[in-house]
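Question (not urgent): is this output format expected?
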Amino acid sequence: MRHSRRVLDPELVARVADASGLTRGEAARVIGDVLAHYAEPVEVYVRRRHHELQTYGMRNAEAFRTIGAELRSRLVAAPDMSERQLRRLIYG
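Got this back:
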């Protein structure tokens, strides 16, 4: 996952590095990856997860329920989306 090129809070990087035993560079990379994960737009997340679930043989109805539940449980929850709204994000 790509992360923003913005400068990370040096205090946060130091705290994560000290707590984890990572180098400052490794800690910055981990923080950047976590921030990028949560910055992923809902539309991109839905399309990516649908593709992943289909790859493992999950049918659409079950995939839409799974994705809807995942969206509700994210750290910064996305709005509730109906199966129809999810389908529109994927198929247009």
